[in-house]
Structure formats: C-alpha cells, structure tokens
Write a structure and sequence with these properties.
Mean pLDDT: 94
CATH architecture of one domain: Alpha-Beta Barrel
Strand order of the largest sheet: 3-4-5-6-7-8-9-10
Radius of gyration: 23 Å
Shape: globular
CATH topology of one domain: TIM Barrel
Amino acid sequence: MSDSLFKDFSSVPSKQWKQKIQFDLKGADYNKTLLTHTNDGITINPFYHQDDIEKLSIPSTDKDFKICQSIFISDEQTANFLATDSLKRGADSILFIANEPFDIKTLSNKINSTEIEIHFQLNFLSESFAEELAKEFKECELHINIDIIGNLVKNGNWFYNLQKDHEILGQILKNSTDITSILQVNVSNYQNAGATTIQEVAYALAHANEYLNHFEKNIPEQIQFNFSVGTNYFFEIAKLRAFRYLWKIITDDYNIKTKAPIFTQPTLRNKTLYDFNTNMLRTTTECMSAILGGADTVSNISYDSVYHKKNEFGERISRNQLLILKEESYFINASEYPEGSYYIESLTKEISEKALAIFKDIEKGGGFLKQLKEGTIQRKIKESADKEQAQFDKGELVLLGTNKHPNMDDKMNDMIELYPFVKTKPRKTLIPPVIARRLAEKMEQERLNDEA
C-alpha cells in the first residue's frame, strides 16, 4: 500500500500529549502519579515521542546469535559426549568450564570443526596449556576467554601476582595469533553481585580499558564481553546496545579496531529455589533481551540450576528455549528490531550518558584496578545490592512464588543436590572480592529451616 494509513491525521506534538494527560488526571500531580524512578537513576515517562528522541548510531552485529551449551569438565570423555550430543540437538556453540588442566585430545574428539564455536572458561592460568588448546582446536572459532582482572574481582587474588599474570597473558596474546579471542571481560561478576544496569556498562568499559592501556602494543583483534542479563526486559536490551555504542567510541578514540563479541547468560540473582518452574519464564525473557540487544552468543541456564546437578532434562529444556526463539519465533538478525522504538532509543541514550560519566570518573580516580584496590567499586556495588535487597525484603521488588504468592506446601529439603547459598571461606585476599548473591537466599533459608 503506497499511501500512508495516517495521512488524514495531523501529527500531535509531545507537549500537546502531555497537556491532554494532565487534563485527564483531574488535578493529580503528573510527576508523582505517572513518573517511575529506577535504582539506576533513570526516570521512566508515561509516554515517549519522536520529538524527544535522539537516535544513536549503534554498531550492527554481522551474524545471527549462537546457541551455546555450557559443560563442566570433570571427566573428559563425559564432557565430550555431552558436547557432541548437544551439537546434534541444536547447539552450535560449546562453553567448557575447567578448574584444572585436562586431556585435550580426548575432549576434542569429533568436535574440532569450522562450523563450531568453542569457548573455554579456565579457572587457572597457563601459557603452555593455552597454546595446546590453540593447536588442537585450530579448525574451530576458538575463544579461550582469559580474564585475569575478572579472577581478581571474583576471588580477591591474582592467579599468581599482578606482574606474573600480566606477563603470562602477554605471552599468550603474542604467541597465539590464530585464536579468535583470548581476552575476556567478565561483566557477569558485577551483575550477579547486585550492580545496576549503568554500573555494569561503566565497569565493563573501565575493566576493558585496563587491558587496552597495559597491552597497548599488542591489543588483540577481539575482546569478548560476558554479560549476565536480568528480567528488566527493555533496560537489558538498552544495556547491551549502550555498551556496543560506547565501545565504538572508546576504540575510535584509541584508533583501534578491536571487536567486542558479546557472550550472555541469564542472571543468577533473581533465580529461586521455591516455585523453581518460574525460573523458566525468567530465563526466556532474559534470553530474548540478550538477542534483541545484539548478543553474539547466548548460553541459557537450566530452571533447576540453583539446587540440582546438571541433568539431561534441565539442559534440554534450556537449549530448546533458545531453539524456539530462533527457529519458531524468528529471532534472526534481531538486534535490528529495537531500532526506532522511542522507549528503547531513549533508554539506550540515557544509559550511555550515565555509564560514560561513571567511566570517566573511574579514569580520573586512577583507573579500575586502583579503585578495586581501594574498595570503591566493591562499595558501590554493595550499596546498589543492599538497596535492591531491601526492596525485595519489603515486597516492592517481586519474585513470584517467593515473596509474593508463595506456595507454602512446597517442600525442597529432599530435592537439594547442590548447596544453593553463598559459600564463604575465611582467607587472606588482596582486595575484598565481589560476591554473587541471589535475592531470595535469606527467605529460602528460613523456609528450609521451618521444613526441618
């Protein structure tokens, strides 16, 4: 249809819409009645209009998102079987997690292919082992994902020490040029500990900037960013878009062309032990936000991952959630879909501006590592987490089935296979670690005690 359906209607400016709303409120205060203020310092308006929107130029993603299955390596043959089985069932990316070196040959059997994307999360640092991985998986799109600063953030200590960690990483960057990406910035640490959306973006940039400054002469072509995605649907879409926008600004300022593929997982912070099936609804919207925000790889988590060991049913359901989004809901090249949405464009711009301001303050304060050492980053995350926790405890922040409409007949003590709460070990650390904590933990512990 060549003629516009709305050609007979005159456009209505933003000011006129607001006047009409104020008239309909019959004396009620517009600001107190219709404006919503978030923990991020963003005010949500009752309507958005093209008069008020400045559209940012968000770098586009050049490929469809990958469906990733995460597998912990406790036995190489078992891990290989799980990987090949997942690939047959629709996954096209695998994340292997390991706490110690393993038999690479056994693991790689039948999965060393140009069509497969392989990620490693190694909770140890070894130059020789990284080189062996690069040789064995040379046919794949390989991401080793070393994040020495992320390890410091999570555990409070370097793998060895500041100098040796940087030296080993520098040698790996220098010698392993065939690896798709070696460096990772693990932003999930901040989100799962309670950081706000704006803090996540700012800390991602400041964290990465430490690597850009240190490896100035040997900056890799790609640095992968690992984000956790929460349930605040539109904010999470805007968060990833804002990051992509700001990363281009920073790399342009450095005059480098380092890409930033985004790896995403649903957050753990809002997952619950009771009414655990609701976790499936949460992870579905979170994966949707990730895809629409421009994630390159999405790795879902099982609805029962809080308390169950990995199992075939849970893993299949989590993978099928992504397959449905991709194959049946047509979330293909979906990062283009939010373009032109007044609300999302407005959120993207505001998150970008506020995150950039925090990033600049961190750099003025001596950089990300300095503020970690001083405890500034940890303190700000804790302040945000405490505020969110208080809202949950009061019932202002709702987790359905837990602090609203709980089914008190649910009994979980006999079903728990994994300890679902924060484990703390008294140990000496260089800095206070950033500790991930679920919102429902205290309430769940009380219910479990009542069951006993």
